[in-house]
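queue> pop job 88
queue> type: inverse folding (structure -> sequence)
queue> payload:
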C-alpha cells in the first residue's frame, strides 16, 4: 500500500523514515478524500528488526540444551546407582533367607527408632522328664505274701500316685516298666526305682526304708544329694525309719543304673517291709507316694537338706 503524506501549507516534508500523516483541522474538513490516502497508525516493523526476535529466541533455546542434557545424564546415573544398591541387598541368595532379616535386626538394634525388630522364634528345648520305675512291673511278681499280695502290685500303686502328683506340679513324668526299652540311655531330671522289701517276718526291727544310688556313679555328688533328699523327705513325710548302710548289692548294682544315660541321677528305694510296714504301704499309699515326690522335688529344686550322709560300715 502506498504511504500517504499530507503537506501543510508552508511546512517542510519530514524525513523518509517517518510514517506519520499530519492532518490539520482545516484540511480534514475541506478534503473528504483524505481517508482514502491515510494508512493505519501502526505498521509492521522493518525487516531488519523482525529478524532479531527469532534469532534471540533460538539462542535462548540453544543455551538451555546443554543444561537439559546434563540433568538427564545425572538422573540416569542416580537411578542406576539406586537400582544397583537394591539388587546388591536383595540378591537371590539372601532374599528368602535369614541373612536379610539379620541385617535388618542389627540395624534396628543400632537405632531402634528406625523400624520394629524382626522377631525370630527359636523352638524351646523340651524339658527333661522325671523317670519313675515301678519295680518288677510287667516282669515278675517280686516279693510274694502268703495271702497273694505281690510287691509288683504295691509298687505300681505307689508309682502311679507319684506320677500323678509330679504331673500336678507341672513336670513331665514317665512311668517305666522294670526292663523298659526306654531305659537305654534314658535322660531325665532324675530317676527313682520304687520297690518294697520282703513279706517275710525277720525280726521286730525289720521295719523302715532304704535308699541307694549307683556305687559307681559318674557324678557321685549328685547321687549323694539325691539319696539324702529322698531319705530326709521320705522319713519326714511317712514317719518310717531310715536304714543307712543297709542297702544290698541288688540295690547298689541295680541294672537300670548301667542302662540310663550317665548324666541322669538315679536312686532306688525300698519303701518299707511288706510284713511290719504293710499297713503303711497299702492303706497309706498316698502318703508314701508324697514322701517320694518330696524327695525328688528337694533334689530338682536344690532345697536344703539337714540329713547327713552316714559313713559306710566296713
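queue> result:
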Amino acid at each position: 500500500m502506498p504511504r500517504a503524506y499530507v503537506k501543510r501549507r508552508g511546512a517542510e516534508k519530514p524525513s523518509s523514515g517517518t510514517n506519520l500523516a499530519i492532518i490539520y483541522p482545516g484540511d480534514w474538513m475541506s478534503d473528504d478524500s483524505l481517508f482514502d490516502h491515510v494508512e493505519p497508525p501502526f505498521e509492521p516493523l522493518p525487516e531488519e528488526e523482525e529478524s532479531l526476535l527469532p534469532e534471540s529466541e533460538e539462542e535462548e533455546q540453544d543455551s538451555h540444551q546443554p543444561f537439559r542434557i546434563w540433568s538427564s545424564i545425572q538422573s540416569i546415573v542416580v537411578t542406576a546407582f539406586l537400582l544397583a544398591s537394591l539388587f546388591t541387598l536383595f540378591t537371590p541368595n539372601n532374599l528368602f533367607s535369614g541373612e536379610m532379616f539379620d541385617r535388618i535386626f542389627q540395624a534396628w538394634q543400632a537405632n531402634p527408632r528406625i523400624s520394629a525388630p524382626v522377631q525370630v522364634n527359636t523352638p524351646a528345648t523340651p524339658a527333661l522328664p522325671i523317670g519313675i520305675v515301678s519295680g518288677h512291673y510287667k516282669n515278675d511278681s517280686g516279693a510274694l505274701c502268703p495271702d497273694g499280695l505281690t510287691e509288683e502290685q504295691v509298687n505300681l500303686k505307689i508309682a502311679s500316685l507319684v506320677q500323678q502328683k509330679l504331673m500336678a506340679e507341672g513336670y513331665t513324668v514317665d512311668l517305666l516298666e522294670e526292663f523298659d526299652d526306654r531305659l537305654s540311655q534314658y535322660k531325665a531330671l532324675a530317676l527313682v526305682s520304687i520297690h518294697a522289701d520282703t513279706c517275710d517276718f525277720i525280726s521286730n526291727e525289720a521295719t523302715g526304708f532304704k535308699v541307694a544310688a549307683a556305687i559307681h556313679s559318674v557324678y557321685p555328688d549328685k547321687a549323694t544329694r539325691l539319696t539324702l533328699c529322698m531319705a530326709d523327705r521320705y522319713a519326714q513325710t511317712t514317719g518310717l525309719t531310715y536304714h543307712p548302710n543297709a542297702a544290698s548289692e541288688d540295690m547298689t548294682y541295680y541294672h537300670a543304673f548301667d542302662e540310663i544315660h550317665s548324666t541322669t541321677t538315679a536312686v532306688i528305694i525300698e519303701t518299707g517291709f511288706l510284713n511290719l510296714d504293710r499297713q503303711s504301704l497299702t492303706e497309706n499309699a498316698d502318703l508314701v507316694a508324697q514322701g517320694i515326690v518330696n524327695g525328688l522335688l528337694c533334689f530338682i529344686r536344690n532345697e536344703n537338706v539337714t540329713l547327713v550322709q552316714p559313713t559306710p560300715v566296713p
